[in-house]
# Entry
Amino acid sequence: MSDIDMPDFASTSLVSALADMAPMRRADGVWRSAWRRFRRDGVGMVSLAIVAAYALLIACTGSGLVARHWQDEVGVPDARPSFVGPAAAPPPGVALPAAAAASAEVDISDVDPLAPRYAEWDARAAQYHAQVRPIAATLPFGGDRLGRDVLSKALKGTQISVSVGVLAAIVATLIGAALGALAGFFGGHVGDLVEWAYNVLTAVPEILLFFAFAAVFGRGISTLVLIMGLTGWTGQYRQVRAEFIKHARREYVLAAEAIGAGAGARMFRHILPNVSHVILARMSLLVVNFIKAEVILSYLGLGVATNQVSWGTMLAESQSELILGHWWQLAAATIAMALFVTAFSLMADAWRDALDPRLRGLR
Amino acid sequence: MFAYLLRRLWQMIPTLLGVVLLVFFLFRKFGMDPAQTLASLDATPREIAEIRQQLGLDEPWWWQLGLFIKGIVTFDWGRSWATHETIAHLMATRLPATLTVTLPILILDTLIAIPIALGLAYVRGSLTDRAIMVGTTVALSVSFLVYVIVGQYVFGFQLGWFPVQGWSDSTWTNLVVYAPLPVLLAVLVGLSPQTRLYRSYFLDELGHDYVRTARAKGLTEPAVLFRHVLRNALIPILTNVGLALPGILIGSFLIEVYFSIPGIGREVLLAVNRSDYPVIQAVTIYVAMLTMLANLAVDLSYRAVDPRVMLR
# Structure
């Protein structure tokens, strides 16, 4: 009542009071205060550092600085790791090619009809540079069946597997968030239509959809990203839709509508920033799920192409190697994957706690 | 109640139609030519054309779609194009193998995860809780494939506790000889996510006022946990199990392929690789139907468990 009696006085005093506080400290935004809470989380910071190290590594392999020659056969087949030492010498009956060449050093030039021309041939051969690539008996973390360096493969495979997981999660998030926003904000016929698509996709098991799409679109990284993105958006959609239904009726959105904000502005300028932490949390789950799915699909022959390397193809190869006692490829791929996925999950958990402190310790 | 049931069943029709269209056009439009896949490598174009005609692939698309829908309505899917086995026979012979593996997995996972999760929720925040939670995070970060590869190597090959792989005609032999290793490994893999999930359900319940009331009126801790918290948390747990039910029909593809178990999952993978449309269509529709029915059953069970729930 009082502000109707003397509206002018009330508003001017408020304005002047605000003006007096001129160098006002802006309240921390959602992200800044979340970062402040995140920094206090020890586990979160350590996992952030590990994920950052992986990101750096992926940038290095992606630009060709590291592990560009992962396909080179640099070691003997199934070379053992250096810290284990080379394989036991072969039994005397089996002579190595080098040993055979050494034993053939007998001078037969007086009976050899080609002897006069050797010098000429040598001179001609000297014009060309022949590179003999040294074949190592051991490699830092062992070699695979073809003598390729397992460490390089693991580095390159990390790049492929993580990019597939992240890109597919981005595709799925874009689809799921866009559809969820539409269905949640407008409802009605638009909502019904999207809900129908959701019901159809969730009625078919995800892995069956993966198979169907993979059989249809073939193999390769882009295909893998596409099929996982096209089939994996449903969870994201469900959550974003629920959030949009909740927020669309909140006062701040109604206020935005009252000052003339259009539907698009309300959805993306007003509501989206308020639900972005939900979207990001779900997206981090998707990254982990897709990285795991890539492994299974590659094992079943529906994943990355045969001339590429990923954690999935490494594990698929290691099945037959393990029977022979060659454990290093399995170990390399498993450690690379477990370290990344653990760090990533813990980091995502810490972020979720920092963004929404009410949820701390729930999951 | 009856009207609700009828409406829910009626609502399944558009969804099922969507699944039909998805499967139909996905494979017809983009898939490989089944005639090409079925014909021998040196088949002449004429032979391929004959196979196409035989399979009805020359007919217009609406005729083929009609045949598909007729199959759904009459439950007569015809025969597999690749093996000429009737679909009904194929399902009847492959399903037992799948269930022999998937049912024990589902039951054991649930029965083991519930007490662990309840215990963890009870001592939440303690060192035990935090250590096990970190342990589950690490366990979850290792691929299912690694568990299977290492598990088979260690338990089957090195220790010789189980046969490395195999299958027989006797259900009992399968259950006690060949299924235990795949089941053990799958339960190990499933335990971490389920424990985490159920722990969050229990934590949710422990925060409610009724728990404080129960303690205030002097109930013992076991009574609070088992009579109150467990019962209330069973609702989301049963939902979770109910939604996992359709999955047991096709089972774990990876387990079946890896351990050469002649189940539905392996059959579907073969069918996809051979463009064997009748098998793909039949399995997809069956699973879709089962998924929808499971959803309905879960909703109905809410009503049975919690009288406050109104079905509209």
